[in-house]
Please model this.
Amino acid sequence: SERTLVLVKPDGVSRGLVGEVLSRIERKGLKLVALELRAVDRSVAEQHYAEHAERPFFGDLLDFITSGPVVAAVVEGERAVAAFRQLAGGTDPVEKATPGTIRGDFGLEVQYNLVHGSDSPESAEREIKIWFSEL
Ligand code: ATP
Model:
């Protein structure tokens, strides 16, 4: 099976949606193999979002992701990367995510889109090393 890195971003944690997100992961049949509530160092955020360094929203994105605790999880299962991205819905919670997805049900703004999920198995392994160096 496959692993993916999931984050409940600071907006999801502050809005009390951690249980909702973890519940959807579990009900889908995916397995939590690591789970931690933690503050985010700027350096961890920069490594995680390195591919967005040249984007105009990069500074705002780093400010946002370091603005409060996140829940980081390693999630495992058959096609875990695609399965979690299906649960999350598209990046823009209104224009892309559909009702029934995490973003479609709970989000309004593209920056405050509640969760992150790795976009490929290769990204997942890179991101898991950043967030869980012991795994
Ligand atoms: P994530 O990588 O967090 O799962 P994603 O893969 O759906 O999200 P990306 O295009 O990789 O989306 O963008 C990374 C994150 O940057 C988004 O989840 C969102 O929080 C933020 N973001 C993306 N586009 C914008 C934008 N136009 N303005 C502000 N923030 C944005």
Summary: The chain has one domain: 2-131. Strands lie at 2-8, 31-38, 70-77, 115-117. Residues 18-28 form the longest helix (11 residues).
